[in-house]
Design a protein that fits this description.
- The protein is mainly β.
- It has a 25-stranded parallel sheet that branches. The protein has a two-stranded antiparallel ribbon with strand order 10-11.
- Helix 1 crosses helix 2.
């Protein structure tokens, strides 16, 4: 049986003809057997592969083969992956970087020399979903124990270490991620499973992801000075009992002609309290969001929402923020069953500015929904200019009104990328 599997992989390798030195292959999503093709892609790739079992440092000056990810690369328990400032990590098709429970990543860039994790395809030929993205699994709690996305399903959520430390991400860009590892199963730009509050994450851009920008599956990690640009699904997503804070965060959505592949329900925020019938309400998702600017793209359509909070989540808005230019209602507090058996009362407090806010009342007898939000008339032009496909590398111009939202003006300048390919 093992010999037959190797033969199948060999046949898949032979079938792949569009190869470059950096693993620039045909799109494997056209193939029927994803697992076999991912194995074939890894065999064709010349770079880092498999498990990292001891400390490893990747430098900006390293040969390209020492900076290219082949297949799923796993930082295992007890090992630390250090990526030096100014380093570019290249993700080959089918690749992803996993920091497993007990492993660590130290990626500390600077505004002048950010760390970039991007597609191995040539600059100008990159696209959303070219490679998998960054996945971190920690030992902090989740509401329910569960398994990760991806071809290998790792368990998470059974830990109890709130302050667990999975490392540091500062001045990091993750670009063109979200590879579909199986039908309907895309990785996010950055996936965070049970990551603890001892993990440091600030000044991070997720650019052109096929699925969510950031998704928190349980855990206690905090995030600051983070932006998602050109996303196809949700920018910031939290579920399964995540509890933490997000401050100084931004979404800037691109039009469809930029090459994004908008999902059926793309949102700025999507926050779910639970994903099961677990009734331990104290462990439901509870997020404090401070200082945010969420700029949508109305041309995407009527299902494009600024935010949706549901299934027992508690969200506290602090120090204000803005939703603007979304295709439908900018912000929805959803206490409706929404076709789900997991509906529960939602609590939203704090004030922010939004084009429109809708509170969807429930259909479950006896259920209540509490919210305290404020609407005001907002326009995109008050905060930022349009991104233009004719000048894709040019950062939109952000106004004084935009900068007044944040604790630090123009915190995204010099180290971010706005080019769509």
């Amino acid at each position: 049986m093992k010999g037959m599997k190797l033969l199948q992989v060999a046949v898949a390798v032979i079938a792949i003809t569009a190869t470059t030195a950096n693993c620039d292959l045909i799109n494997p999503k056209e193939e029927d057997d994803t697992s076999l093709l991912l194995a074939a892609l890894a065999l064709q790739c010349n770079g880092i592969s498999g498990d990292i079992t001891s400390d490893l440092t990747i430098k900006a000056s390293d040969d390209v083969t020492k900076r290219t990810l082949c297949g799923a690369v796993n930082v295992t328990s007890g090992a630390t992956l250090t990526i030096e400032a100014g380093t570019t990590i290249l993700g080959a098709p089918g690749s992803s970087l996993w920091v497993l429970e007990g492993g660590k990543i130290t990626a500390i860039g600077t505004s002048a020399n950010p760390i970039v994790m991007t597609s191995s395809r040539a600059d100008g030929s990159r696209a959303t979903g070219d490679w998998g993205g960054l996945v971190i699994i920690g030992k902090a709690p989740a509401l329910d124990s569960a398994t990760t996305e991806g071809t290998v399903k790792y368990s998470y959520g059974s830990g109890s270490t709130n302050a667990d430390n999975s490392g540091t991400l500062q001045y990091v860009r993750v670009e063109f991620a979200g590879y579909e590892v199986a039908a309907g199963d895309e990785l996010n730009g950055i996936s965070l499973y049970s990551v603890g509050s001892g993990t440091t994450m600030d000044h991070i851009q997720v650019h052109m992801p096929l699925d969510d920008g950031f998704e928190f599956f349980g855990g206690r990690a905090n995030l600051s000075f983070a932006l998602v640009t050109g996303g196809s699904d949700d920018a910031f997503d939290a579920d399964n009992g995540y509890q933490g804070s997000w401050s100084n965060i931004m979404e800037y959505r691109y039009p469809t002609n930029a090459g994004i592949k908008a999902s059926s329900d793309p949102r700025g925020f999507e926050i779910d309290g639970r994903n099961s019938n677990n009734t331990t309400t104290a462990s439901y998702t509870n997020v404090t969001i401070s200082r945010f600017l969420m700029i949508g793209e109305s041309s995407i359509g009527s299902t494009h929402e600024g935010g949706k909070i549901r299934e027992g989540a508690t969200v506290t808005f602090s120090n204000g923020g803005v939703f603007t230019n979304y295709g439908q209602t900018s912000f929805i507090v959803d206490c409706d069953s929404n076709g789900s058996a997991f509906a529960a009362p939602v609590t939203v407090t704090g004030n922010f500015n939004s084009e429109t806010t809708t509170v969807k009342k429930d259909t479950i007898p006896g259920e209540t929904c509490s919210s305290n939000v404020t609407n005001s008339s907002e326009s995109k032009s008050k905060y930022a200019s349009d991104w233009s496909i004719s000048s894709p590398s040019t950062e939109p111009t952000f106004t004084g009104s935009a900068n007044s939202i944040f604790s630090t003006s123009n915190w995204w300048t010099t180290w971010t990328n706005w080019k769509n390919n």
